[in-house]
Design brief:
With 89 residues, this protein is α+β, with helices and mostly antiparallel strands. 27% of the residues lie in helices and 18% in strands. Strand 2 and strand 3 form a beta hairpin.
Length: 89
């Protein structure tokens, strides 16, 4: 059984609210990221970037999240991989 999270994404500039985890119902990983320097969406409280079932994406492995988050945040994939691994421990 997978630990569903949610887990914090402690990426500088995104760490205040960003989270990721496993959705058992869809069998998919997901992530929602909010930049620290942008205001929250007062109406929908929507993340600035999102991946996973809510966004019509099926991500079957954690490693599938890595390039998506890396591209959205302009951070090297190795660093994203490291942060995701650290957040689960």
């Amino acid at each position: 059984m997978r630990n569903p999270g949610p887990f914090a994404i402690l990426l500088e500039g995104w760490e205040n609210r960003s989270v990721w985890g496993w959705d058992e119902g869809t069998g998919s990983w997901w992530a929602q990221l909010w930049r620290n320097d942008l205001p929250d969406d007062p109406v929908a409280d929507a993340p600035h970037v999102g991946f996973g079932p809510l966004y019509r994406q099926h991500i079957s492995t954690v490693s599938g999240l890595v390039p998506l988050i890396a591209a959205a945040t302009q951070v090297e994939p190795d660093r994203i991989d490291q942060l995701l691994a650290e957040s689960m421990s």
